């Protein structure tokens, strides 16, 4: 082959690369989906906390755990939208539930999909559908849509599945700060300016209705905030008096202007560092 032909062949290969090899799902329990090129990268260590350490979200915890357990056993289960206050453990709960179900001896894998890669979800579902011996939680963290965002149309492929239906071995869990996945002011603006207000936002707003489970997360009380930190300290073996913990934790929360599970973890991280305890 001449040099010119070789260069042409290499250029064509770059423009239309060969299809990616089928993922080795037996090699890991967690994966992250990437595009350009499409690939599922295994995650050796998932960043998560143990389920018992998630305080103040008992009802959501029990509901999601039961739904996930059903799914892992091959029984019917719903897609779930975890929505509400920032830093209250929505994504932590999804990862903790996955770990808890696996500890029960049930085979279950988790695949993380970013919102920006939603247009590629059809290709991802094809990979997952082709692995009938495995069951997958498809997880999208911090899901939301702006006024002119068309990614929500791709999400329907996960929730409704089109003519093929959603793969039987896939359930979709998403977290969002918004119950309807779009800002309230945008909903009101479209309703007030549209010729047909009821139809202007129905397509986007009704997207959240396609989730069988809505799990709400709300700001925690001070007692729940302190209980979170006490649970972290006990699990890590850090001894601290109630008086000291209360004074320091409340001061820490005041400097952040908020109280949440994330703020509790940040205080605990600082405390562990000061006490020379590795996490």
Note poorly predicted spans: none
What count of structural domains?
2
CA radius of gyration: 22 Å
What's the CATH superfamily of the largest domain, by name?
P-loop containing nucleotide triphosphate hydrolases
Looking at the structure, the CATH topology of the largest domain is Rossmann fold
Mean pLDDT: 85
Strand percent estimate: 5-15%
What is the total tally of β strands? 7
Biggest sheet features = 7 strands, mixed
Question: In CATH terms, what is the architecture of the largest domain?
Answer: 3-Layer(aba) Sandwich
Helical coverage, percent range: 40-55%
What does the overall shape look like?
Answer: globular
Placed side by side, the strands forming the largest sheet appear as 2-1-4-5-6-3-7
Count of DSSP helices?
A: 11
CATH class of the largest domain: Alpha Beta
Helical/strand content category:
alpha/beta
Q: End-to-end distance, in Å?
A: 59 Å
| H/E element order | HEEHEHEHEHEHHHEHHH
Oligomer: single chain
